[in-house]
């Protein structure tokens, strides 16, 4: 196996995520300084926000700025998203996406719900994890509608009940994941996983996560 590197699985840019407080290029500088070699940009993909190809191109702004800054630092930056459906406030992390697959999403994807979206993920070879499912006011989704659970969310401003998430994943054999959920400077470096350097493509990362139910958490 190739060298293990630090990979951030959950971060936001202020260019796209309204709750983000850090510009994409600064996010990359901060992660590079913290020893990360790769990140997945998971900006919020919200209902009524990206219902055309042009709007989805704007969604990619944070990723594209992060990629340019990351490349200058020798980092790999992959596209992802934290999608929310119209049926409720629950959030879901998606891995294995490319720019074109994001641009080509159905205009009404957020109206279709998690069951239909998970079916699309299976068809396309993406992975779907529910983010921080045990925070107050959120519902954990049926295991059949998920590939995995974010079992360690490291955002310091929320109580994510990671112990409950881990127990749920173990009960149903779901994949597990750790992410910083980085929105602010203070969040950088709080979490992520160790991954082989040779898996740093959308499909390579999915193959690794699919075969590694419990990757090494930071």
Q: How would you sum up this structure, described in words?
A:
With 218 residues, this protein is of the alpha/beta class. The mean pLDDT is 97. A six-stranded mixed beta sheet has the order 3-5-6-7-8-9. The protein has seven helices and ten strands. Helix 1 packs across helix 3 (61-72). The chain starts with a strand and ends in a 7-residue tail after the last helix.
Characteristic key phrases:
single chain, 218 residues, alpha/beta, four-stranded mixed sheet, globular
Task: Please report which band the strand proportion falls in: under 5%, 5-15%, 15-25%, 25-35%, 35-45% or over 45%.
Answer: 15-25%
Q: Which strand order does the major sheet show?
A: 3-5-6-7-8-9
Structural class: alpha/beta
Question: What is the straight-line distance between the termini?
Answer: 19 Å
Task: Give the SSE layout.
Elements: E1 4-11, H1 24-33, E2 38-41, E3 44-45, H2 53-59, H3 61-72, E4 76-79, E5 81-84, E6 91-95, H4 99-103, H5 109-124, E7 127-130, E8 148-153, H6 162-172, E9 175-179, E10 193-196, H7 202-211
Parallel strand pairs: 1-2, 2-4, 3-5, 7-8, 8-9
Antiparallel strand pairs: 1-10, 5-6, 6-7
Helix pairs in contact: 1-3
Summarize the structure.
The protein has seven helices and ten strands. It is an alpha/beta fold. The strands form two sheets. A six-stranded mixed β-sheet has the order 3-5-6-7-8-9. A four-stranded mixed β-sheet has the order 4-2-1-10, sandwiched between helices.
């Amino acid at each position: 196996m190739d060298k293990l590197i630090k990979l951030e699985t959950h971060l936001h840019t202020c260019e796209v995520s309204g709750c983000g407080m850090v510009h994409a290029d600064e996010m990359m500088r901060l992660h590079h300084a913290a020893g990360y070699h790769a990140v997945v940009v998971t900006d919020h993909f919200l209902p009524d926000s990206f219902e055309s190809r042009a709007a989805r191109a704007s969604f990619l702004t944070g990723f594209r700025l992060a990629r340019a800054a990351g490349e200058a630092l020798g980092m790999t930056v992959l596209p992802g998203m934290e999608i929310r459906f119209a049926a409720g406030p629950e959030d879901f992390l998606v891995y294995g996406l490319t720019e074109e697959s994001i641009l080509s999403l159905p205009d009404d994807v957020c109206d279709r719900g998690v069951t239909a979206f998970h079916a699309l993920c299976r068809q396309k070879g993406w992975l779907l994890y529910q983010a921080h499912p045990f925070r107050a006011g959120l519902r954990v989704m049926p295991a059949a509608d998920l590939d995995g659970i974010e079992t360690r969310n490291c955002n310091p401003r929320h109580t994510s009940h990671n112990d409950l998430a881990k127990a749920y994943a173990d009960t149903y054999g779901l994949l597990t994941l750790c992410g910083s959920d980085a929105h602010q400077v203070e969040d950088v470096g709080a979490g992520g996983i160790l991954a082989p350097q040779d898996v740093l493509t959308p499909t390579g990362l999915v193959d690794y996560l699919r075969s590694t139910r419990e990757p090494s958490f930071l």
